[in-house]
Amino acid sequence: MENINYNEKFKNDLKWGELGEKVIAKWLETYKGFSGTIFNPNKNSDFDFSSSIKGKTVLFELKTDRWEYFKNKITNNIFIEVSCSDKLSGVHTTKSDIFIYFFPDLEEAYFIKTEDLKELIKTPGLKLTEQSGDKGKVKGILINRNIFREHFNIENITKLKIWD
Fold it and tell me: Where are the domains of the chain?
């Protein structure tokens, strides 16, 4: 059995997550006309960052996924957290307007309205995982990004040297 230092793993995941937020926020400002991005300092909060377009503030939830890169195994899955410690979490508790799933090593980001994602995870046949993340306390739904790609707005996010 693999000996995992969960504190170090969390710190590393947090580092990549925060970097992903900065990359996507900069991309939204550069290519989509958003401005005034504010990163939420409360990591236990209901969204990751906000940005404005045409006078409207939009809340974003972003997940940066490098699992396939680190494990050198392609699954084509998007993991959507639904509970932690038997309490609703993730997509069920976010206040975000837009949910983004970012694969930096594939240079792809999958955008979906959070309300649409909440409906998508109800699709019959999707796999519920148990004992995922946070020392096995997290449950999530796996969405095959190839089968369900029509539900997402998929954007190419040019690879930056910071990922190397």
Answer: 6-163
Asked if residues 62 and 72 have their Cβ atoms less than 8 Å apart, the reply is no
- Per-residue tokens: 77: 């899955």
Residues 6 or more apart whose Cβ sits within 8 Å of residue 143: 77, 78, 80, 120, 121, 126
Q: What's the CATH number for 6-163?
A: 3.40.1350.10
The sign one gets for the Cα dihedral 119, 75, 134, 127 is positive
3-state secondary structure of 53: strand
**Could you give the CA distance from residue 142 to residue 5 in angstroms, rounded to a whole number?**
25
pLDDT digits (tens, 9 = 90+) for 79-137: 999 998 889 988 999 999 999 999 998 899 999 999 999 999 999 999 998 867 666 68
- Looking at beta carbons, which pairs linking 41-48 to residues 24 or more positions away fall under 8 Å? 43/14, 46/93, 46/94, 46/95, 46/96, 47/94, 47/95, 47/96, 48/21, 48/96
Task: Show the CA angle centred on residue 53, arms to residues 48 and 56, nearest 5°.
Answer: 80
Return mean pLDDT, the chain: 86
